[in-house]
Amino acid sequence: METLSPEFKPKIGIDTKEWLPSMDVVLPIDGSEIPDFQKWVNWNGFRPNHSGIDFAAYLNNRNELIIGLQEGLPVRAIADGEVQQVIDCYGPYGTTVDIFHGELNDSADSRYTHVVPCVEQGKKISKGEIIGTLYKDKKIGEQRLVHLHLALYNSWKIAQSRPFADPEIVFGAENFIECDSSGSPEPKLIGVETQPTKIIIANQNFGSETRVITPAWKTEN
């Protein structure tokens, strides 16, 4: 299981009301369970019109950017807590699992969307425990990418001024590679020595399960 920085991390307990930088959490998807995984790419991150982060893209050990994850990958609780609700979103969204990480109805909570759950409301959850697997949209035509949307909510009192927390800040920016445009099929990565040799968009129906893009910067000049 992937753990974050070994430095001191704020603990999460019954009095936790707000998500803070570099808390005592684990990533919701363990990269070691993805073949050739190198590092997450913050391809569709936190911003005013997107209240969480999508675990949807990563750089592999062949310097290829993979957009779209594998159906059935385990999804894990990022911290100890209790399942507050399991919501069937219907259609292409799969199901949402909502976990409180302190006193019920007055604590920080985490919300995991596009999953097939294996937990029920009221279940006590440990950090790193599997709560479901990634869901794949079964509709015909262009499908939603297989990915996890993770949103972090502060308690109701704090939510009046700061309803959401940026998951990248909570997990630590060192766990992600930034890119220049959210949701673009041909993003450029920031802070890397070389750009990806190719972009592979997986688990999306464009006439086939996977399409490969030769990035525009490979054809420049």
Describe this structure in words.
The protein has 221 residues and is mainly beta. It has one domain: Glucose Permease (Domain IIA) (Distorted Sandwich). It is built from 3 helices and 16 strands. It has helices at residues 156-159, 167-171, 216-219; strands at residues 37-42, 52-55, 57-60, 64-67, 74-76, 81-88, 95-100, 109-117, 124-125, 130-134, 148-153, 164-165, 176-179, 189-190, 198-202, 210-213. The strands form 2 sheets. Strands 2, 5, 6, 7, 8, 9, 10, 11 and 12 form a 9-stranded antiparallel β-sheet that branches. The model has no long low-confidence stretch (mean pLDDT 84).
Mean pLDDT: 84
Number of strands: 16
Radius of gyration: 17 Å
Shape by Cα distribution: globular
Strand content: 25-35%
- What is the chain-wise order of helices and strands? EEEEEEEEEEEHEHEEEEH
Keywords:
221 residues; 7-stranded mixed sheet; mainly beta; 9-stranded antiparallel sheet; single chain; 6% helix
Secondary structure elements and pairings:
Blueprint: E1 37-42, E2 52-55, E3 57-60, E4 64-67, E5 74-76, E6 81-88, E7 95-100, E8 109-117, E9 124-125, E10 130-134, E11 148-153, H1 156-159, E12 164-165, H2 167-171, E13 176-179, E14 189-190, E15 198-202, E16 210-213, H3 216-219
Parallel strand pairs: 1-13, 4-15
Antiparallel strand pairs: 1-3, 2-11, 3-4, 5-10, 6-7, 6-9, 7-8, 8-10, 8-11, 11-12, 13-14, 15-16
What's a concise summary of this model?
6% of the residues lie in helices and 33% in strands. The protein is mainly beta and 221 residues long.
